[in-house]
Amino acid sequence: MASETPLLSLSDLDVYYGAIHALRGVSLTVDPGEIVTLIGANGAGKSTLLRTTSGLVRAKSGSVQFMDEDVTKRDPAYIVSKRLVHCPEGRRIFSNMTVRENLELGAYLRNDKVGIAQDIEHALDLFPRLRERIAQSAGTLSGGEQQMLAIGRALMTKPKLLMLDEPSLGLAPNLVREIFRIVQKINEEGVAVLLVEQNANQALAVAHRAYVLETGAIHLSGNAADLRNDPQVRAAYLGEG
Predict the structure, then answer these.
(1) Half-sphere CA count of 146, side-chain side, radius 13 A
(2) Which domains does the chain have, with CATH numbers?
(3) Taking the complete model, does pTM exceed 0.85, yes or no?
(4) At what angle do helices 143-155 and 113-126 cross, to 10 degrees?
(5) Which of 49, 63, 167, 183 is 20 to 30 Å apart from 144, CA to CA?
(6) Hey, CA dihedral for 7, 9, 15, 21, is it positive or negative?
């Protein structure tokens, strides 16, 4: 999966929340066509890394390069317009709006009506449960269906890189498997994925490469299969040893 030019390159990012040093000199890359996963304990800085990449949090130092453009100081709407898209933890759907309206909002930066209609159909093909509930208020959906809607809405931007923050959080095991199957399918369609996930075993199973974040710094990185077999990783994140 190596590429001469990474799709996304984070270099020496330092992020503070007041006196708290949340990210400490973090560097990572995502190449075109890759699934890269970021694993680590609660509070390690994983969500902060995604929020910094998408412009929601400002870095004190370091840079975010996307498709050879420095977007470190750009606002989130600009970053989305470049098709670097963040699907946040907690789903953040619009609960009083219908499933269709949520999907349409995902395309708010687009004006190609035919393409938007096609992409809504594509999202509904990926998530047949949403087709059955297309006219329902999103707040009436189950947790798993809301997560499907959040991913479907993110796909309406036609992302080149999709950042997913804890997509399996709180879901039943059968839905967790379904979400990861969909993540792989999205990737097979040409979308790179940066995945933050507490379910380290599943994340390492679908990813090409992985980074382990501990107290705001990269502790380990490498091929996902190798990290899955690493005794340190198995003991700390896979519940073994």
Answers:
(1) 20
(2) 8-237 (3.40.50.300)
(3) yes
(4) 150
(5) 49
(6) positive
